[in-house]
Amino acid sequence: MAGTWDLTAAKPAWERDGYLVLPGYLSDAEVSRYRTLCDRALAMWRSADPRRDSVTNMAWLTDPIYWRDDREGLLRLCEWVAEPRLLALLRHLSGQPILFNNTQYFAEPIKGCWRGIWHRDCQFLAEDDASEQRIVASFAGVHLHVAFIDDAALSYVPGSHRRRDSAEERAIRKAADKRQRSRGEMPGARALPLKAGDAVLFHAWGLHQGTYDAQTPRRTFDCIYQWGEACAAAPPPPTCFEDAELLAEMTPQARTFFTHFAEVYRPFWSKGAQAWATS
């Protein structure tokens, strides 16, 4: 990893704002390496269903279906997700063990242009306000967006991860007219543009919005981590992490990280799993 960060300064900024921009997170060579891997999976995913041309992101890049002819590529992707310096940063921010959840890859739709809804990811797991607050209290979700090309799609409300909605925020996020959830001007929102190779780490429970435009190329990798309890409302699937041979080929750090993930979620896997993060 090319970038550096100051752990001493990172934690108060994270606690205050709910996000950290990490300039130069990847070198040019790393951008090329990981984009090649993700573009390959994206092409396979899109080709499997023409309707996906209008979808803006795919999930579960660690599914073995994308790596049948490139086991080494899957290993490289997994090792990157479990990169020791990033996990150390996450542990420093949370003070807790870090758990893997999901991978996503954002790309421009083939056609169309729209603004996503203002949301907190926890709302997609909850039936009502009370269950949403129980989820917030039980665990935290965190996105790491890594831009392979310049990306200005994300906006975030600093500090919103620490509190509930104001009356004005709630009027937008919970608007009966769904168009208002996208078009409403969220007070205090801040754009978080990234240059190629930059990354942003942000709290999934904070208020955020993405924009999507067929005329604006986008290639942004997203890894979702969590801490606290398991996400019982929508547990992630095993993808490749029940493959003992694959785990044995990993470095000890990555093997420990993904073995822990499997141990936590194995009780859920017989019941199936669904994606929970759609930022």
Key terms for this structure?
279 residues; alpha+beta; 9 helices; 6-stranded antiparallel β-sheet; disordered C terminus; globular; Jelly Rolls; 4-stranded antiparallel β-sheet
Description:
With about 280 residues, this protein is of the alpha+beta class. It has a single domain, classed as Jelly Rolls (Sandwich). It has a six-stranded antiparallel β-sheet with strand order 1-8-5-10-3-2. The protein has a four-stranded antiparallel β-sheet with strand order 4-9-6-7, with no helix packed on it. The C terminus is likely disordered.
Layout of SSEs?
Elements: H1 7-17, E1 19-22, H2 28-47, E2 57-59, H3 71-81, H4 84-94, E3 99-107, E4 113-115, H5 129-138, E5 139-147, E6 154-156, H6 167-173, H7 178-183, E7 190-191, E8 199-203, E9 208-213, E10 219-228, H8 244-249, H9 252-269
Antiparallel strand pairs: 1-8, 2-3, 3-10, 4-9, 5-8, 5-10, 6-7, 6-9
Tell the overall outline: globular
The assigned structural class equals alpha+beta
Total strand segments: 10
Distance N to C terminus: 24 Å
